[in-house]
What does this fold into?
Amino acid sequence: MNADIHERALRLIDAWHVEGISTPDRVWLEAHLADCEACAARAAATERVIQAVRRNTIAVDPALVSTTQARVRGQARAMQENQSRLRAVWISCALSWILGALTAPLLWQGIAWIGRRLELSQAIWILAFTLCWIAPASLVAAFAAWKYSDASEAARTRRH
Ligand SMILES: [Zn+2]
It folds into this structure.
């Protein structure tokens, strides 16, 4: 038998499992495999590999798939909620800073006036001004941090 015949047999063995082969090709191949030990061994080895791959294919439980999809969707929803919450926090912080900047001159004059009336040292009324000025932003930030940790806790509880 010449080498071309074995090469054809090997090509047909591979094609058989991938795209299939015609009936005349299969008849020819089966006749060749009956006569040729080397090609028969190769066909058997190919068959064993294909069987092993089929055995190791993981059968995934559909319930597990739908549970996982639901969890991923829930996670995405929670992330979206957190993002819009965070946006609201930034907007309120920005508003608080803008109001703080706009009212600073008035607050400065008012506290300076009170400081002079009560004969307080300049250091004390400047400290009072600073505290009054940062108080709204600090309150908003503290409130936001509290709400945010509350929301993350709720999201964590929902997940379990
Ligand atoms: Zn052969």
Residues 3-55 form one domain. The chain has a mean pLDDT of 85. The radius of gyration is 39 Å.
